[in-house]
């Protein structure tokens, strides 16, 4: 009985370890692909029109700054509506994407 339980425990450990390794590889590849796509978008945008690229980066920065302000300020009564909710969600998504890239893309050899 003890040998079967030990073998089952070792088997479960190996399956979990291989699953985590595969998940780590998939997340790293996804992060490298996302980083490559962002770099390609920036390159193509700059080659199309540097003025529109700078204007777009400024508008995106303003959008994210407003979202950060809405996210971190003291909440007022009621829920956020309209533009405030949109910018707060946009900031949260951008922050999670940046965190994902920071955690996984910095470990890949694509940089």
Overview of the structural elements:
The chain is 83% helix and 0% strand. It has helices spanning 2-48, 50-72, 83-104. Helix 1 (2-48) crosses helix 2 (50-72) and helix 2 (50-72) packs across helix 3 (83-104). The termini are far apart. The model has no long low-confidence stretch (mean pLDDT 82).
Q: Are there runs of 5+ residues with pLDDT below 50, and where? A: none
Tell me about the biggest sheet? none
- For the termini, the CA-CA separation is 51 Å
Round the mean pLDDT to the nearest integer and report it. Answer: 82
What does the radius of gyration come to?
Answer: 22 Å
How many DSSP H or I helices?
Answer: 3
- How much helicity do the residues have? over 70%
Number of strands: 0
Q: Based on helices, strands and strand pairing, what is the structural class?
A: mainly alpha
Indicate the overall shape.
flat
Q: Give the amount of beta strand, in percent.
A: under 5%
Order of helices and strands: HHH
Which characteristics define this entry?
111 residues, single chain, 0% strand, flat, mainly alpha
How would you briefly describe this protein structure?
This protein is 83% helix and 0% strand. The protein is mainly α.
Annotate the secondary structure layout.
Elements: H1 2-48, H2 50-72, H3 83-104
């Amino acid at each position: 009985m003890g040998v079967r339980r030990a073998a089952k425990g070792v088997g479960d450990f190996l399956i979990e370890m291989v699953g985590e390794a595969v998940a780590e590889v998939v997340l790293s590849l996804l992060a490298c692909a996302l980083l490559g796509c962002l770099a390609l978008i920036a390159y193509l945008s700059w080659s199309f029109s540097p003025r529109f690229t700078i204007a777009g980066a400024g508008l995106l920065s303003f959008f994210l700054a407003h979202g950060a302000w809405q996210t971190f300020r003291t909440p007022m009564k009621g829920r956020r509506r309209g533009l405030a909710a949109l910018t707060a969600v946009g900031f949260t998504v951008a922050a999670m994407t940046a965190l994902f890239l920071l955690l996984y893309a910095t470990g890949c050899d694509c940089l």
